[in-house]
Amino acid sequence: MADLTFASAGELARLIAGKQVSPVEVVKAHLERITSLDGSLRCFITLTAEAAMAAAREAESAVTAGRPLGPLHGVPLGLKDLYDTAGVRTTGGSKILADRVPAADATVVRRLREAGMIVLGKLNMVEFAYGPEGRNAHYGHARNPWDAVTHRMAGGSSSGSGVAVAAGLAPVALGSDTGGSIRIPCSLCGLAGIKPTYGRVSRAGVLPLSWSMDHVGPMTRTVADSALVLGAMAGYDPADPTSSVLPVPDYAAALTGDVRGLRVGLLRAFFLESATPEVRTAVEAAARALEKAGAVVDEVALPGVGHVAAGALAVVATEAMTYHAEWLRTRAADYDPDVSSRLMVGAFVTGVHYVRGQQARALIRREVDEALARHDVLLAPATPVTAPRIDERDTTLGDGPSDIRSALIRLTRPFNFSGHPTCSVPCGFSGGGLPIGMQIVGRPFDEATVLRVGDAYQRLTDWHARRPVLA
Amino acid sequence: MKQPVDLDALRGSARVAGFDWTDAQLEAIRPMVGAALRLLASLEDLPLGDVEPTTQYRML
Q1: Which of A246, A329, A444 sits opposite B18 (nearest CB)?
Q2: Which of A243, A310, A358 sits opposite B39 (nearest CB)?
Q3: In this predicted complex, what is the ipTM?
């Protein structure tokens, strides 16, 4: 039997359904690995080992009894600690909500349990999801598993999700993505993950950062697993007024491996131009690999993308301030000062700024739509750099100096602003052995094509098959 | 926003918004507020005059 902790979700589901392995063995293997490694990796805020083992035994009984099984029956799952879980605390990575115990599961958690998944616990994250580095002053900084010597950023805000999946502590984790918080840790930790179209997946029961920019989605080691999990999560939810009634396609069935004739637009200006040489070379090589497989690749630009930082600031700062206003009046000292100070800035953003930001959003969305009228997908680096050291504050990009926070979020945020579906896929490693990620952007509600391209690329390459060496 | 943001302006704006933050707290965020307002001012460079703001996405 192969190592269960690095088997894919799809493979685990097949082995369990075929009675070749028990859900109890699968969950136990993951819990043992968590016990062994999480002291240094700092992935989990709350581990629900007893409940996971009880669910595994129940799942085993279902298999033995021949009961109908969900598509992910017995597969373990980690949850970023902003997904409500009935009876289990949901902290948002904060001290303020350290003792908050929801009465009900978030919609997507309920759906994934119904699909057969078993929750291992709640994963570390940036406090209230407000930051891309992956630091957390209250629960410790999750550690990127790809460097055993130097403590490097996992990326955030879904830092524990990225580390847990990369290190084999869970085959699947859920993240959330307001400016890149799924794709940034996927890029820095060598994972696949998808930020679906805004409205594709319910946000009900997920702590907000910015209602109109928040997206939720899966983080996995393969694109095929992301397709499987997204299919079980997606779909209309009356509890989320922004969720779409469009039917959910069979994403797994869309993974044909065929990209012949697909038109791929490579984003050079602003995107490739800002990447470091190693990242740029890796993404260009990925474009050539797709071209060799039959895709038609040319270059495309989004002329207004330089205004996304201002527009997104207007929107996120205002919406985040609205959610946090009362705590900032009464419990400001309970925040990490690095988080509270940025939240406080939102008090000085005016209503005119907010509407200007939403107007800019309409312009950017139109630009992305126009680029996608001529292309099936767009291709770009996910992050312009590989994982920085945990204490690093500044860096040099391909087009000049930048602070780390702005650098990490620079290439992902435009597609939160526009709402288009975007996945991150590993596309290489730096000379120092750190993963490099690329983004594939698709038309609204066309996750199927995004996933198809990502999966086809993974069939052509083996970057996703590498494993970090852990002590 | 060409002028630096001073403490008095921050204090007044914070109070109007309902926040009774201390001068030390406001002084700590003053550079960030100034940088944010300069960035937000750049939105005025966009041709946004009659653009309908995005208030909802394709909720089909």
Answers
A1: A329
A2: A310
A3: 0.94
Mind spelling out the 3-state secondary structure of chain A?
Answer: CCCHHHCCHHHHHHHHHCCCCCHHHHHHHHHHHHHHHHHHHCCEEEECHHHHHHHHHHHHHHHHHCCCCCCCCCCEEEEECCECECCECCCCCCCCCCCCCCCCCCHHHHHHHHCCCEEEEEECCCHHHCCCCCCCCCCCCCCCCCCCCCCECCCCCCHHHHHHHHCCCCCEEEEEECCCCCHHHHHHHCCEEEECCCCCCCCCCECCCCCCCCEEEEEECCHHHHHHHHHHHCCCCCCCCCCCCCCCCCCHHHCCCCCCCCEEEEECCCCHHHCCHHHHHHHHHHHHHHHHCCCEEEEECCCCHHHHHHHHHHHHHHHHHHHHHHHHHHCHHHCCHHHHHHHHHHHHCCHHHHHHHHHHHHHHHHHHHHHHHHCCEEEEECCCCCCCECCCCEEEECCEEEEHHHHHHCCCHHHHHHCCCEEEEEEEECCCCCEEEEEEEECCCCHHHHHHHHHHHHHHCCHHHCCCCCC
Chain A residues 287-316 with a CB less than 8 Å from chain B: 304, 307, 309-311, 313-314
CATH number of A360's domain: 3.90.1300.10
**For chain B, which ranges sit under pLDDT 70?**
1-3, 55-60
| Catalytic option among A8, A158, A181, A202 | A181
Provide the chain A residues 201-220 that lie in CB contact (below 8 A) with chain B. Answer: 212
The answer as to whether A471 is a domain residue is no
Query: Per the structure, how many domains does chain B have?
Result: 1
| Whether pTM exceeds 0.95 | yes
Residue B57 in any domain: the answer is no
